[in-house]
Amino acid sequence: MIEKIRSAAMAPIINAEVFEIEAKLCTPYKLTEGVLVATQAVLVKLTDADGTVGWGEANPAETVDGETPAGVMRVLKDTLVPVVLGSKEPNPGTIDARVDQLLPSHLCAKGAVTMALLDILGKRLNVSVATLLGGAIRRSLPVLWPLSNGTAEDDIPIIEERAGQGFSSFMLKMGTSPIASEIKRVAALEARYGERVKLIADANQGWSFDQAREFLAGIAGSRIAFVEEPLATDVIKGMADLSRESRLPLSADEAIIDLSDAAELAAAEATKIFSIKSSKNGGPLRAQRIAAAAEAFGINCYMNSMIEFGITQAASLQHAVTVRNLVDVGHAYMSTLRLVEDPTDFSSFVRNGFVHLPERPGLGVGIDEAHVRRLTTTSFVLGPQR
């Protein structure tokens, strides 16, 4: 048995291909910062000396994490991929530690490498990434559906359609309409649906402190599950003050990039929920540490997403099924359903409003490499470092 385990340990990575890809959204998505009609990602394909292939994905969003696709491509080519290619035994945790010493940030790019290495390790050991992270404690999760900035009248047809497909949690994007309108929106939807659906409000840093306070006071008697990232500035002190004033839980999203952010928010009692995004937080190993910090402070986790392709969605899910302190709402595993095309089969795991853990080893998601290449806008290849 020991020899079998040793033979399955990581082998050197001999080839790395990196692709910047783009796909359109099925429906434009209205956010605080504008209307999103397409999304970009950077995919990393690593191949080891035994021919095992692993895939990772970076989802840079300059307004959230300060990263761009071009920046991710550059740091992968100049720093991160050479570190991997130069390692005799590129274990995911070891590589994470090495690149953190080299670069203080660039978590999005680092996360893509971590995902790919975990994918390879899981395949070599013939286990899921969830098993590598400690083991799944659930096999499925409910999935939410997001609603653009708008009115209750805009929301109702979408809720009706998606509820008919099994979705029961909905995130209301806010931040561009008058506060009185947003309060009216919540009241109208709760009056119509009662306890049949769960609602989340997400202002995407769109409000001042006074606006957030007005909104929380206006919905004080509501059943809304939580209010995400309401403040544009002075986030920690402001959210701590709001949390003391309101019975409604606040969630931190853009305010949590790395573990130190999580620690600062938790120590200040600024939030009851951490919004975890696998790519934003640097891949499953770093996201796992954030979830553990949350649990230590009695904070729940909401598994969120950027507009992602299926690799990041799979990496996030593999982590999510191991997390004990998940908030009781639908989680963000609908991203690939919102894209005109996705080169993975992740959408097949979303059925009747739930996402189901894949049975395959590694990340468990299938990749159509020809499709990846059709979506590619730029790419590069690197071989072993001597």
Plain-language structure description:
By secondary structure, the protein is α/β, with parallel strands linked by helices. The chain folds into 2 domains: 2-126 and 368-382, Enolase-like, N-terminal domain (Enolase-like, domain 1, 2-Layer Sandwich); 131-356, Enolase-like C-terminal domain (TIM Barrel), CATH 3.20.20.120. Helix content is 39%, strand content 22%. The chain has 14 helices and 14 strands. Strand 6, helix 8 and strand 7 (198-202) form a beta-alpha-beta unit. Helix 3 (69-85) crosses helix 5 and helix 8 runs parallel beside helix 9 (209-218). The longest helix has 19 residues, at 107-125. The protein is globular, with a radius of gyration of 21 Å. It starts with a helix and ends with a strand.
Structural class: alpha/beta
- The total number of structural domains is 2
Let me know the number of strands: 14
Return residue spans where pLDDT drops below 50 for at least 5 consecutive residues. 1-6
Count the DSSP helices: 14
Q: What's the CATH architecture of the largest domain?
A: Alpha-Beta Barrel
Q: Which radius of gyration do the C-alpha atoms yield? A: 21 Å
Reported for the largest beta sheet, the result is: 7 strands, parallel
How would you name the CATH homologous superfamily of the largest domain?
A: Enolase-like C-terminal domain
Q: What is the percentage of strand-forming residues? A: 15-25%
Mean pLDDT: 94
State the strand order across the main sheet. 5-6-7-8-9-10-11
Oligomer: single chain
**How far do the termini sit from each other?**
33 Å
Order of helices and strands: HEEEHHHHHEEHEHEHEHEHEHEHEEHE
The helix fraction, in percent, is: 25-40%
What fold name goes in the CATH topology slot of the largest domain? Answer: TIM Barrel
CATH class of the largest domain: Alpha Beta
Please state the overall shape, judged from the principal axes of the Cα atoms: globular
